[in-house]
Amino acid sequence: MLGVISVSSIWGDLIKISIFGESHGKAIGCVIDGLPSGISIDTKLINKDLLRRSAKSYELATPRKEADHFEIISGFFNNKTTGTPLCCMIENTDTRSKDYSPEILRPGHADYTAYVRYKGFQDYRGGGHFSGRITAPLVIAGSICKQVLHSIEPEIKFGSRIISIENINDKKTLNWKDYLKLDLSELKYPFINQELIPKVENRIKEVIKEGDSLGGIVECWITGIKAGIGNPFFDSVESELASLLFSIPAVKGVEFGSGFDLTRMKGSQANDSIRIDNGKIYTQTNNNGGINGGITNGMPIIFRVAIKPTPTIKKEQKTINYKLKENIIHQFRGRHDPCIILRVPVVIESISAIALLNLILKNING
Amino acid sequence: MLGVISVSSIWGDLIKISIFGESHGKAIGCVIDGLPSGISIDTKLINKDLLRRSAKSYELATPRKEADHFEIISGFFNNKTTGTPLCCMIENTDTRSKDYSPEILRPGHADYTAYVRYKGFQDYRGGGHFSGRITAPLVIAGSICKQVLHSIEPEIKFGSRIISIENINDKKTLNWKDYLKLDLSELKYPFINQELIPKVENRIKEVIKEGDSLGGIVECWITGIKAGIGNPFFDSVESELASLLFSIPAVKGVEFGSGFDLTRMKGSQANDSIRIDNGKIYTQTNNNGGINGGITNGMPIIFRVAIKPTPTIKKEQKTINYKLKENIIHQFRGRHDPCIILRVPVVIESISAIALLNLILKNING
Amino acid sequence: MLGVISVSSIWGDLIKISIFGESHGKAIGCVIDGLPSGISIDTKLINKDLLRRSAKSYELATPRKEADHFEIISGFFNNKTTGTPLCCMIENTDTRSKDYSPEILRPGHADYTAYVRYKGFQDYRGGGHFSGRITAPLVIAGSICKQVLHSIEPEIKFGSRIISIENINDKKTLNWKDYLKLDLSELKYPFINQELIPKVENRIKEVIKEGDSLGGIVECWITGIKAGIGNPFFDSVESELASLLFSIPAVKGVEFGSGFDLTRMKGSQANDSIRIDNGKIYTQTNNNGGINGGITNGMPIIFRVAIKPTPTIKKEQKTINYKLKENIIHQFRGRHDPCIILRVPVVIESISAIALLNLILKNING
Amino acid sequence: MLGVISVSSIWGDLIKISIFGESHGKAIGCVIDGLPSGISIDTKLINKDLLRRSAKSYELATPRKEADHFEIISGFFNNKTTGTPLCCMIENTDTRSKDYSPEILRPGHADYTAYVRYKGFQDYRGGGHFSGRITAPLVIAGSICKQVLHSIEPEIKFGSRIISIENINDKKTLNWKDYLKLDLSELKYPFINQELIPKVENRIKEVIKEGDSLGGIVECWITGIKAGIGNPFFDSVESELASLLFSIPAVKGVEFGSGFDLTRMKGSQANDSIRIDNGKIYTQTNNNGGINGGITNGMPIIFRVAIKPTPTIKKEQKTINYKLKENIIHQFRGRHDPCIILRVPVVIESISAIALLNLILKNING
Predict the structure, then answer these.
(1) What pLDDT, in 10s, does the model give residues A50-59?
(2) Which one of A325, B215, B317, D243 has the minimum C-beta count within 10 Å?
(3) What are the extents of the domains in chain B?
(4) If you measure CA to CA, which chain B residue comes closest to C363?
(5) Is the pLDDT score of D366 beyond 60?
(6) B/C interface, count of CB pairs below 8 Å
């Protein structure tokens, strides 16, 4: 009798983030509970992060260009957090629902699984609650968390870059010291090698013509974190970050430090030698990505995230009409991103800031 | 004044698993709360899983050979679960604490981070609560969860294999249909290609001589799961599995389906075409590893886990004596596994069973 | 450096309710996550419950008469729940912030404790997030939960009445069979003895003249609940209900069944004799209020809640100006309810419906 | 197919307490996760608290005299907390299971509800997991929490007393200043008026002869708590305390400060006037029991708990044999307490210490 039941859109312990909304509904938003009181929040910085995610910033992104004006509804008084729940909302303005049918399932998308999970009662328009659009409130929440982290620990910085798009590769490996000063946030294409841009743009234009899409790998780093944050086992830094990273639509892989490459090393190579220099402890290499035993060691936290190509494509695909129970070949309409990865780095940074604030609040000393 | 604070060793929603104990303490164990009542548990199956993890099973494993006798303390009556908390304990019997010093930090290990995190009050002997030894109660818990899952859904099966050890590679890619019947659980070396064994054994013997260690990649699959289990965003199947997988010591990477390889595909290749056959819906390929939008689609769930080489090695390493604040070169004692990956597959299966039971209980229909 | 930190406004396990907003902010609202999909929600019933709570319904209530128009922002599609987060909002329309000073502390109110807790950054206008106004979204959430409960178990009914206002007492004790048909929800004054009304109205008018306020006792009952809902210890029916009841501003006592009167009985009187009649099990008395060992026994759940008199009064009071650190005698402005208990019964019912839905979802059979 | 499912025996946020065991099982125990590291724990103080709860201390208590020897299994190293999970166990030694039948339901007890809830698979011997015996690990956990609280805030003290047993009443109302020095923990009968003792002992002997039992009211106070601990709404001090207090078997009512008596006062009487004296803020009266808006105000926290008479009595009672589905009159065997309230005060204190530590850890400043 009941549709299946489960809370899915609230995360956290010491801060809790709740996200709500659908791609074609009235509004989308988030509630952040557990923020310390008295923290100044600069809404310009939030807008800057929203813009990095916005389709408005990329002519090669989806033709759906949302205004992304947000409003703070509660928990904010005299430009500072009050400590009680902070709610933010963004109205949806540029929806075109007629493109969507609940009966023809888009391969690679959540159409079928949402249908089974919610017994057909899901809002199917534009993917509903499953839409990448819901990452906009995550960026707001993450941007706020970054500012809170900054007021707790001014040294903490987040960075991200695109390592590869399909087979176009930027530099994979960097020395850990490079991350201390690397900041690509002002670049439209956050590559170290900016000469890749024409190659990338041409490739995107090609797949647009084909009605196809591309994926890639994003790398994210967090510097300025003290040693001793995190926990063994279930609340390890890797566990908390991964649980959030895998909640971003299209993420299918996560690796920390040297990740899968560590499996090809011997222990004597993989182990990062510990050194002390003027009383400061560091490691010579950073194969462990700044984390040992689930706890930060003071080195940069580094991880890479695999983003699959956007499943919504215009090209003909084999699928089914589930109501008619028949195999069909179908060309889907609906606007989409040919290369969503351009808009993803700030989402990765944002969700990492949420994870990190939660971890740091758990480990504050009395 | 306070040492840092945080719950780290309890996980779950509808079932909660609590693990406790230290490598060289009196006993290690787990409490499982939220089990349905009236489920028959066969302790022989638990012992079989414990044996797959046990150093007793591998002459090339650590010389510390623990008996791993477990006792069910509560929540079990007339060979069935009562529904109230089930507590299990294993006494530690083969400890040799004199090998451990709290002052010389093992590179790649949690010695330094645990020291900072717990302000020097951690039980440092054998890694204390950070030890891989604590995965024994996880295997017990997972083995019980497998049996509970089996009584809910008799079709569900867990499998695992070693894909690679250092640069020795077994077959990487299989057709999804192969997983439906693949069972390597009786094999000492769970390779598809058993002819790799002499090569592997020779390589392990070599690194033992060098006082070094090896890592590798484990693949795990779960078949017989219905579509519709899981959730969008924070409680996605990937999020729940990854949060547990990354809590296993030595795990540094996780990918689902084609994982990082998906980033090299176009959308039209990555999308799994949906087909219907006699009313049964399936996909032609399984690049998404059985999960779309965080929810199962009825195909086998497949993921791969990167295991770094055991950090405890006998070879000379550069490290520090933190009390003397001096750089040293040190040769550590303490028994260890030269190739822990041999004992890991059942741990991966077990922790996945915990994640899956939690997910399935969340999505049961009324 | 940090203001104190803690999540305070999210509750639940299988459903999670998040409330947000301040008395004089833009809007107040709630997010309900974990609702089953496909449940029809009748917004007229929500409005009916909101009206029972509204100051508009009582000329003797506060002169602040809020419109209480609510809007469903998400999680609702084609008049049914989608199963993803349902967000509701009410705009604040009738605020008068100039009456409030952050520096003169209202006795009996949260002014001082909020000031210490949030280090002076709280929104002090009208009590901010501490205001009874935030119970409006709780009524919305509870009204939705009632409807969900009704579709799971059509027999379940909620009732409430005022047992006493100051020293004006309605009938204290009823036979448990009386509750099966008792429904006072259409009455403006939910007394069994309606002849008390003139006495009550006169008493309220008296305290209005004095600039004072009154409290009282509310009784709530839930009928039609099957035996077997709830849990021993921490998730007992009493624990879950009490944790929510005590979160309502002004609640200072809760008792189940015969409550404090049970302490005057002997075991042989307090124990409810168990009987069977045509296969139906029931108890002769209901001193335990429908709950044994934290679990429902199929009898009506009955509890009483002590509501203290509204702390905001107009009468002169001894208090301090905390900035000047001086003792003063002060007459507060700000509109208030002389007898808030009139508006409380539906709040008690609503929050109980939230608790009960959470409990029932936890105990649904597979 | 499934027995009903739910976690019931884990509580907390920043510390989590898990309790396990059955009255007649091998052992009972608890796991405490989230303790700060480096806290000295004096096991003599734990034993002292266990003794206050022990039937050994009262000749008029149950003839079942358990040794209550406990052992710390983990999380404790060099007499200090390590910060990782602390597990404690007590073996059961004095069980007599033959007295119990699963088929004849004890009125007032959880026999029927546990049977329905766990579908007949519960351990029915001595009440199984529902037994008051499980409060022994709660006392251990609470005693540890008291010591941790003491090292965070040396001023914090817990006290408790019996206010009434059946109709024998000790002084009900005290001035709040009296609580600052009141300590009855060394008294066998924690009455202020020790002359009540012969009256009480005679009354208990009478009900023993009758095969009956008595209940009463316990008052508990916590002094030395700073203002600003706690939260509005769902994590209010009252909510957290009440949720734990109602998890103690036999508790049926809880009131804070003047509790139900507040409902008879006017606002001007109920409001505690705020005063400042040499910079110290306090209230003249303490009707609110040290809590406003869910947050401590620095005054003593005071609450009263209604304990129903032990349901297990020897007197003939009307009940059913559920298997035969017949009404019977039955005389139960099984040892029991004629006046459990004698052993309850330390349990109330202990569970309050758990609640308070959780609250304080949530509100520590960074």
Answers:
(1) 999 998 888 8
(2) A325
(3) 10-362
(4) B366
(5) no
(6) 17
Tokens, residue B176: 């999804």
**Could you tell me if B13 lies within 8 Å of chain C, comparing CB atoms?**
yes
Chains adjacent to C (≥3 CB pairs closer than 8 angstroms): A, B, D
pLDDT of residue D1: 44
Q: Token digits for A55?
A: 């389709």
Give every strand in the sheet of D86-91, ordered side by side: D10-11, D16-21, D27-33, D86-91, D70-74
pLDDT digits (tens, 9 = 90+) for A120-164: 999 999 889 999 999 999 999 999 999 999 998 999 999 999 999
Question: Which residue did the predictor score with more confidence, C210 or B59?
Answer: C210
D89: chain B residues, CB-CB within 8 Å: 73
Q: Does B34 touch chain C (CB under 8 A)?
A: no
DSSP-assigned beta bridge partners for residue C251: C307
Task: State whether residue A13 sits within 8 Å of chain D by CB.
Answer: yes
ipTM confidence score: 0.97
Token digits for B109? 């290990």
Q: What is the pLDDT of residues C113-171, one digit of tens each?
A: 999 999 999 999 988 999 999 999 999 999 999 999 999 999 999 999 999 999 999 99
Name which residue leads in pLDDT, D13 or C139: C139
Give the mean model confidence (pLDDT) for residues D70-82. Answer: 96
Cβ neighbours of D236 in C, within 8 Å: 8, 246-247
The CATH H-level superfamily of D10-362 is: Chorismate synthase AroC (3.60.150.10)
CB distance B39 to B80 below 8 Å: yes
Chain A CA closest to residue C27: A73
In our burial notation (b when 16+ CB lie closer than 10 A, e otherwise), range B83-112 reads bbbbbbbbbbeebeeeebbeebbbbbbbbb
Would you list the DSSP string of D66-105? ----EEEEESEETTEE-SSPEEEEEE-----GGG--SSBP
- Interface residue A12 vs chain C (CB under 8 A): yes
Q: What is the pLDDT of residue B150?
A: 95
Q: Do B116 and A295 touch (CB under 8 A)?
A: yes
The reply to whether the predicted model has a pTM over 0.95 is yes
CB pairs under 8 A between A and C: 221
B132 or C57, which is more confident? Answer: B132
> For residue C165, how far is the Cα from the chain centroid?
16
Q: Which amino acid is at B314?
A: K
Contact at CB, A366 and D232, closer than 8 angstroms: no
* Residues above pLDDT 70, as percent of chain C: 98
Q: CA separation (Å) from B163 to B50, B51, B206, D110?
A: 22, 21, 20, 53
Q: Is the pLDDT assigned to residue B1 strictly greater than 50?
A: no
Structure tokens at B304: 């791969």
Chain A contact present for B259, CB below 8 A: yes
* Closest CA in chain B for residue C37: B365
Instruction: Inspect the interface and report whether the beta carbons of C108 and D267 lie closer than 8 Å.
Output: yes
The pLDDT of residue C366 is: 40
SS3 content of chain C, % helix, strand, coil (to 5): 30, 25, 45
Contact D66, D135 (CB under 8 A): no
Q: How far is CA D162 from the centre of its chain?
A: 13
Residues whose CB is less than 8 angstroms from the CB of residue C197 and which lie 6 or more positions away in sequence, other chains included: C189, C191
